[in-house]
Amino acid sequence: MSDRLSIRAVAAGLVLGACALPIAPALARVDAPATAVAAAPAGASQLGPQELMNDVSKRMFAALDSNRAAIRKDPEKVYPLVDQILLPNFDTEEAARLVLAKYWRDATPEQRRRFVSALYKALLHTYGGALADFTSERLKILPYKPDPATPDKATVRTEVTRSSGTVVPVDYRMHRTDAGWKAYDVVIEGISYVRNYRTDLGAEADQKGLEEVITRLEKEGLDLSKTSSH
């Protein structure tokens, strides 16, 4: 597996968390790995941006380390980990709203629900299994520097080291919510993951309409939908 795919997989995993809430019951039907997932610490909603990222990454890597063999054999084993560890720390509606941009305003509540669900399934189907090959020693969380001008916004900067030794900047955009700090976007080498999807899906929606975009994404995630229902 290429380093680029591995790095994109981690970013996708975090965006997955931002898109997963509407189909959490479906995820619960997937058999979880044998090793229990460490619970979030008490008072997690009070953690600052960097503290939260440290906690989430520590628990995610611990779960991956305990279940790598199972995930490599069956990539679906990573789905409950995304659901239990990443999902609670991401703003689902903000990520989906930013991706859809102008189409979010005009979409019906049902279209919004279907879009969030379909995007999540498509991302997880493409990148979920690649999370098994990502290890903690390749991720470095840099010291957090708050911006007094934007007290309710934050960017947690990290560095990912490829096997070649090249260091890739990966930043997580976060904002303060009533439930604490939550992430809503990932920026890899200056490229926003949400903006990338907004550009691609926006162009497709301009040509074919939002309904066609949602239907295509639903078809891409069809296999995942079948397996998660067993």
Report on the structure:
- With 230 residues, this protein is α+β, with helices and mostly antiparallel strands.
- It has a 5-stranded antiparallel β-sheet.
- The protein has helices at 3-19, 24-28, 49-73, 79-86, 92-100, 102-106, 109-127, 193-208, 210-220, 222-228, and strands at 139-141, 153-161, 167-177, 180-188, 191-192.
- It starts with a helix and ends with a helix.
- The protein has a single domain (3-228), classed as Tgt2/MlaC (Nuclear Transport Factor 2, Chain: A, Roll).
- The radius of gyration is 17 Å and the shape is globular.
- It has 10 helices and 5 strands, in the order αααααααβββββααα.
Topology:
Layout: H1 3-19, H2 24-28, H3 49-73, H4 79-86, H5 92-100, H6 102-106, H7 109-127, E1 139-141, E2 153-161, E3 167-177, E4 180-188, E5 191-192, H8 193-208, H9 210-220, H10 222-228
Antiparallel strand pairs: 1-2, 2-3, 3-4, 4-5
Helix pairs in contact: 1-4, 1-5, 1-7, 3-4, 5-8, 7-9, 7-10, 8-9
Sketch the topology as an H/E string, one letter per element. Answer: HHHHHHHEEEEEHHH
CATH class: Alpha Beta
Strand tally is 5
Strand content: 5-15%
Structural class by helix and strand composition? alpha+beta
Query: What general form does the structure show?
Result: globular
Tally of helical segments: 10
- Give the fraction of residues assigned to helices: 40-55%
The total domain count is 1
CATH architecture, by name, is: Roll
Low-confidence stretches: 16-36, 224-230
Widest sheet: strand ordering: 1-2-3-4-5
Let me know the largest β-sheet.
5 strands, antiparallel
Our Rg estimate from Cα atoms comes to 17 Å
CATH superfamily: Tgt2/MlaC
Average pLDDT confidence is 78
What is the rounded distance between the termini? 29 Å
Quote the CATH topology. Nuclear Transport Factor 2, Chain: A
